[in-house]
Amino acid sequence: MAIGTGKHWPEGTKVLVVEDSAATAHLFSARLKMEGIDVLTARNGLEALEVLKLEPISIVVTDLMMPGMDGYRLVREIRQMAQPLASMPIIVVSSNQRESEQVRCFEAGADEYMTKPISLPLLVERIYRLLRRSNRVT
Fold it and tell me: How many Å apart are CA 112 and CA 126, to the nearest integer?
């Protein structure tokens, strides 16, 4: 449990942050590590898929616009993987506030869509809620 949040994260909770901005990836990672969560990072969708093959991940937080493989394709690729990966919670973050982009993300299979700048406490709350909903946190 992280100090001050009251959230109980099960041992082994691991978040994959997929973000091409090193500063944003560091910001997200630092906040999640304060919660006592293990964090792995990838710079794009292709790197993320490699991490998913090697590491047990609880949830993915991915940027939308990245070089190589964008967030849309990454979400679709994850949803086509074998279980339990195919049902893993996915949060998409983007600076794009257009409703059409949000709809496109949900159609690809995202569970949540958040616009930048991200409220870090809200990100933690959404991660916790999605993990509870998927029975990955009790």
Answer: 8
Range of the domain at 116: 14-132
Query: Is residue 75 included in any domain, yes or no?
Result: yes
The number of distinct structural domains making up the chain is 1
- pTM score: 0.91
d(CA 59, CA 92): 11
Using only the alpha carbons of the chain, give its radius of gyration: 14
Whether 63 contacts 24, CB under 8 Å: yes
Cα–chain center distance at 39 = 10
Q: Are 19 and 41 in contact (CB under 8 A)?
A: yes
Q: What is the pLDDT of residues 32-70, one digit of tens each?
A: 999 889 999 999 999 999 999 999 999 999 999 999 899
Q: Is residue 127 part of a domain?
A: yes
- What angle in degrees, to the nearest 10, is found between the helix axes of 99-108 and 71-79? 30
